[in-house]
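USER: Fancy drafting a protein?

ASSISTANT:
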Amino acid sequence: MAARATLSPGSSPPMSSSLAGINDGVSVTLSPDAVPFSPLASGDREDMGSVAGQFSHYASKLRSLRAGDPASLKTQLNLLFDQLISENYSPNHNIRPEEVCALLIHVTRLVPLSQEHLVVKLCQLTHHLLNQLQVIVDEQTLDVCVCYVVRALAVCSLWTHSEVLQALSTLIYGNGPRCNRHLIELLGDGGVLRLYSDPSQPDMELRRAALTCMANLCLGQASLEDPYRSVCFRVFLQTLQSPKPPDAEELLYCTVIQGAVKGLQSSLCGGKWRFGGQEELGALLAVLKRLMFQGCPGVCVEWPSVLYPAPLPQYETCSTPKPPEPPQNPPTQTSGNKKKKSRGRGRKGGGEDEEREAEPRLQRGGRGGEAWSKTSVLPSPGVPSLYPLWKRSSSDSEFSDPEGAAHSKLRLFHGRVRQGVLLCLLAVVKAVEKRTLYGYWSSFIPDAPIGGPPPLTLLTVVLKDPSPKVRACALQVVSALLDGSRQFLGVAEDLAPARTSYTPFSFSLATAVRELHRSLSLALLAEASAHTLTQIIKCLAHLVCNAPYNRLRPGLLSPLWRQIQPYLRHRDVNVRVSVLTLYGALVSTQAPLSEVQLLLTHTSQETGLSWRQREGFSSPHTPPSHKYHNSHTPRGSHTPGEEEPGVPWLLQLCVSLVTQPKDDQSDSEGPGGGGATALEPSPVRLEALQVLAHLVRGYFPLCQACLCELGQVSARCLRETDPSIQLHGAKLLEELGTGIIQQYRPDNSQSESCRVPISQVVQFWVDVLSGPLNGALQSHQHPTLQTSACDTLSSILPQAFTQLPEKSQVLCVTVLLGLTYSDNSLVKAAAVRALGVYILFPCLREDVMFVADTANAILTALDDRSPNVRSKAAWSLGNLTDTLIGCVGEVFQEELSDMLVLQMLQSATKAAFDKDRVKSNAVRALGNLLHFLSVSQLTRPGFQRPLEEAVSALVTTVQSEATMKVRWNACYALGNAFRNPALPLDSASWSGDAFSALCCVVTSCQNFKVRIKSAAALSVPACRHCYGDAERFGDVWRSLAAALEHSEETQDFLEYRYCSSLRHTLTHTLTHLLRLSQSQDMPALGMSLDGRSQRDQVQESLTGSDGRSGLGVSNRIRWEVPERSGLGVSNRIRWEVPERSGPRVTNWIRWEIRSRSL
């Protein structure tokens, strides 16, 4: 393979017929198709002083060249190429891509392959033009130029191949799907790129160039076909796994690694990627983990070739490194000076790259908790150290200037390798399924150190790497691992005492969460780069959002809460925004948490609020936000420097960030420059509004004292011109309304005295409805704002809506009815949903006109082309029909138009065949409507066919393969329809299909909740004749008995939790059928009880160990089975039912079932 990898000038790889016609090195007569020279007219002459004019001038000269003296042609081409290459182009110059493509096609016909210097210059020109002008060549240019460079690789000398490959990589950049006809020559067996990228290729520069070409081929969403992508992936992985050749330069080897890593990243980002098994993924993760520490001195670890989902402990064991030789010259300068100098640079640049190598992580504050974090200059033997060799001595004379520059360049290249590897690992995390990655967490996320040297993980890079960009990339990977891991981390728990015999998995996860907190807190203390600091805080926010703090010992959030407070005054806007994001995560995770509640009410003189108060928190333009008092919530007076007792300081801080001017007028990031009334930058204000919304949602009892003040903040935001501020102001209003509704729910255990008084709620909404919310509802140019405003109207407390002034009620209803005809689907969906909420209000559901108007609007929305609109309309129709069967009387039923009821029935039937999210509520509405129909309506001919179609739709849905929620609702709807005594269940043609569908589901459905609801539906008919003849009654009984017999058989372990509820419902239904059974039903019941196993199963379910069935009364059922006596068997059922009230009376019911002889 080594012989094939190094191509000699005389050798040529296999080529296709697409290379025919390319000149092969002899003197060639130029094509007569070349564009003839024609001088520009004076009116069309370009300005020669511009770059575009220079390009057009030289390009015209190239196009004017004709066949002539080869020496003269060579000279002219040399001069023109040099002049074109010397120009500094930019994408903003007025140079059309068509001109560049035409020029490249023409010059490939001018330069013979025998003139290798011209070939090199042509390749340099191709790279220069396409790279600086950012031109993606068209398909014709791509074909011509790729054929030319492939032929050059086969014909020209080896010294030219590096430039030729560079031109090829530029040509195919972003053109991977168009290179199909060249893939065999490039990536096939013996292809050019396969040969040059082979690990046995001795020329490292050619390997790097070939890998770059392959990476550019894989770039883009619609890149190579899977076979060729797999070839590239294996080449990249093989390159990373191969050791560095002993005679290769370290810098060139770093560039090769960068090319392979970039190619892997392109392959993974180019669409869905399927790894060739667990071994391939484990091998990739292993090599990426090794390269995460590329160039880090003191890391001498026996790295595994493959990582497995449960890595063994020896995979992370560090071998004993050779002790480093002591420096010849002892240090003459203290390390404190270096610290001071490095910190100064850190403050100045904030986000500088690897050239500003920060001081080693070992000497930064807060690292003392690590076993590696020794303050001595030299590490102790046996302990790996990331302390850079070039920083172990403070002597300035240890290296000469050239040596120092070489070491700095090597550090720079190593840092770029580590950065690229971490970005590739980030692509792996995003491409692989979360569940698959959970097995590899222990290789990248450590748990608490128990002893010995700590493992090498991502947090090691975060704490120890000298490059801020590398640390930021490692933090991005950790954030990606944490994002969406709530279900995995939800298993973590350490509330129970620690076990000494073994360590449960839940405890290991809990220790991993604690180690993440500890390590990220140390990184937060030591970080000087603003960009990396932002990533640390974002990573903490991801951790807080996914960790189950209600299952962990308290004490994790309090130190973090106090640690991030000083960063609220950081000069960098991104840092301040990320801090607010973290506070939002803290107040929204598993709210309400007692630890967070204490932190919110805790008064501290060093909070961000007190800082703003000390530096002019109050402003003459707006009332100070810490003065929370009004006529509805009287408060005692206090000085401006005091905090309001009972009001969360975080709420006051966020209000001040939204409404008050900036405290630091030298901060130049915000809008308005340095004006006296300049507010905080928009990102800070938006994040503060989001924190307020999270705070109100999770801790409304702490915020309710400031209800009217928060309403004023929202009104102020709605009056601004920034749509984003307006949107978040409307969302804050919605959260306030939702918090009030939560307090007044019947299941809320909060005492009435702790709730917001109704009078205050009414006044709050009166102020809101008379404020700028009306403008947001009519803001047609901002549909998202209109949508949020509709959601705000739907969050009005029903008890408060009744007491609103009539004009306010009319305003809400009129606006919502009008917006249901909006052209924007989001606005229409929100308006229809809000009407579905209003239809449940006691003061509106008895208004026939409102019900009719709402029904017409909903029916119109059900025909909308947007699935979202139809889904909201079906939900609202379900709510509307709930009110029809809930609280309306006969007068209302008579006033409601029969035609409107018929239209609702037909629309709901049509929606029952829509998508599942529409169907689930459509079948609910069908059940309600079938329950609502009166005798007079059922006897009308116009209702007969719609009635049959409605029941048929429910039966089809019950028996369909739809989602379980849809089938559950369909079973509930059939049971709801059975409650209508006017329906002819005994004689209708569709009733048999309805009972058969329910019987089928109760015995065969895999989902126990659907079986429970179908069994409940079968118990709804109150009269015996509703079940039809004896044969149908017997079918229902046998189905229920069979379902009871197999009630513990399931393939899904999660269904077992519903087993008891299923048996209870089946028992209730069987008992109901026993009560209704008549003499003609006895033979069918007796035949079903002949089998001893089934009889025993029914008896065991109907009679508990204490003689109770769980139905609220004590039912004791005895089965008396005499011995066989000649002609038959006499099965006597004796049922003892004590009455619920009065003296204990025993009712004896006895059936004697004669069955035929056995």
User: Anything to note?
Assistant: The longest helix spans residues 401-431.
